[in-house]
Design a protein that fits this description.
By secondary structure, the protein is mainly α. The protein contains 21 helices and five strands.
Length: about 450
């Protein structure tokens, strides 16, 4: 049976971007210049971190053939936004909305990529669509999340939180907190028993820097600061260590909750094979002058022990941000996959506490060096914090690295607009107007005392 465009898009949906791009190329041989096939290839190439200029070229060719296709304008805008061409991206998002007035995903992306200074006609339009039932259910979530951003920017916390509650109700995904608790309990047992020995640090091959922490804690910002150094290749978010963990679980016949306990039984040849696969994934894309690469999947906090076994001596940077700031940001963010805890304030609070305890436990293991970076310190004392960060990863520091808005790489995370902005203090106390509404989160993470410990840490 001949493969079709639908098959290519299915591959994109499955994260098999290279296969999707190859199939789209074959389809173009049979249908030269077909706008939807060009769009599919462009999104495939972009999603796998390929040549963004080729992706943009395909999108512009597609739009030249079908200028009234809203989805093509939307896809063009999405790629442009990731490159930092925000004015052009915003214009394309607006054109997508003009062509398809119920494109709530375009509205959501538009307002996420700007500071909203007024409740303009576009925001009014989508609020009206919500009130009159003019949006299908699958788009209502995006409209609500878009209005969260608008009202938060405008300093109207009651309206922002009202839309956040509805957005998270519509987008609620399952989350197994019981499994998370069980894994943490097993980690406590492993650490208390001293059951893990970390090999001596290795040298001589391109070394990884793992930037990890709660989503929305500042991991993208930290990676962007590091990537300003010519020796650092920014690897972005890839699930390579997660996949290595899954392979090891299968090999050892263990359950997911035993992922940390199994590390004591992991054999060196198996670990080396997994580590080499991860390293080769990055080194194939590195330039000659680059000797370090970053991996910034936030929830690698769960896998610090595995990271230390795979890459002895790896530089690990844990980014912490005020628990209510990071919790609110999770509740206000429309994640495209995973992070099911983020739809519930109580689950967010417990998850933050669990993640931080997990990091603290791993940090207590001899041979695992975790550099703790507080987001607030990077914002309020950027040069001092930057020097300490670069010292930890073994690189010289230049204050120019603290201009992440000059980072020319593509950013595909939810922080793609924020990370293009100069370091600023607005985000530090953003949670304060929402304090009363966040009471379920505060209770779940351990009460006001838990928050107070972060605000007045022991130095």
């Amino acid at each position: 049976m001949a493969l079709t465009l639908n098959d290519a898009w299915a591959l994109v949906g499955a994260g098999r971007y290279r296969e999707a791009a190859n199939l789209a190329t074959r389809l173009l041989q049979a249908h030269p210049g077909h706008p939807e096939v060009l769009s599919c290839r462009a999104m495939s190439v972009w999603s796998m971190g390929g040549d963004v200029n080729l992706a943009l070229q395909d999108m512009r060719r597609a739009i030249a053939v079908a200028p009234e296709a809203a989805n093509l304008q939307h896809n063009l805008a999405t790629i442009l936004a990731s490159t930092g061409a925000l004015e052009e991206a915003r214009a394309a998002f607006r054109e997508a909305i003009r062509l398809k007035p119920d494109d709530a995903q375009a509205f959501f992306s538009l307002v996420q990529n700007q500071r909203n200074t007024a409740f303009d006609a576009t925001a009014q339009h989508f609020e009206t669509l919500l009130e009159t039932g003019g949006l299908p259910n699958e788009l209502r979530e995006f409209a609500h999340f878009g209005l969260v951003k608008v009202f938060d920017d405008l300093g109207e916390p009651d309206k922002a939180m009202k839309h956040a509650h509805e957005a998270n109700r519509l987008g609620k995904r399952p989350y197994d907190m019981a499994a998370e608790r069980k894994r943490l309990a097993n980690l406590r047992k492993l650490v208390e028993a001293g059951g893990l020995r970390i090999p001596d640090a290795e040298s001589g091959t391109p070394q990884p820097i793992f930037v990890l922490g709660m989503p929305r804690s500042g991991t993208t910002l930290v990676e962007s600061v590091l990537a300003r150094h010519k020796a650092v290749f920014a690897g972005g978010e890839d699930s390579l260590v997660l996949r290595a963990e899954q392979q090891l679980l299968k090999y050892l016949g263990r359950s997911a909750e035993e992922a940390d306990l199994m590390l004591a039984d992991a054999e060196r040849p198996v670990l080396d094979k997994l580590a080499n696969g991860i390293r080769q994934f990055y080194t194939r894309r590195m330039q000659k002058e680059e000797s370090l690469f970053t991996d910034k999947l936030p929830h690698n906090t769960d896998r610090i022990g595995l990271i230390a076994l795979l890459f002895p001596g790896a530089r690990i940077v844990h980014v912490r941000r005020h628990p209510l700031a990071v919790g609110l940001s999770n509740y206000f963010t429309r994640f495209y996959a995973g992070n099911g805890y983020s739809n519930d304030l109580s689950l967010i609070g417990e998850h933050i506490a669990n993640v931080w305890e997990s990091v603290d436990l791993w940090s207590s293991v001899p041979g695992i060096g975790v550099f703790e970076l507080r987001y607030e310190d990077l914002i309020e004392n950027p040069e001092e914090t930057g020097k300490a960060l670069f010292s930890h990863v073994g690189l010289d520091f230049d204050p120019a690295y603290l201009d992440p808005e000059k980072d020319a790489r593509n950013v595909l995370t939810a922080s793609q607009w924020q990370v293009r902005q100069p370091l600023y203090a607005r985000s530090v106390a953003r949670w304060r107007p929402y304090l009363e509404a966040l009471s379920p989160m505060v209770a779940a993470m351990g009460g006001e005392q838990y928050v107070a410990r972060y605000e007045a840490p022991e130095r």
